[in-house]
Amino acid sequence: MPTLLILDGFKFFFYANEHEPKHIHVMKGGDFAKIELESLRVVHNDMKPKDLKKVLAITTDHKVEFERKWDDYFSQR
User: Model-level pTM?
Assistant: First the structure.
């Protein structure tokens, strides 16, 4: 489970056996969200609205980096 970023208590990651479309998972405590990278569409969410807003802002800021890490990781498999 490659970790992409830990920031403000949020852990951004993807699983080693992921599938397209490119997406990330985010956890904070027991809360969880899944976001598609290309569209920034929230696929799953059980976070508080304030936390999800922050997650989307962080994801937007790191989108290119997250996509590059996805491509690097899965091109080696």
Answer: 0.94
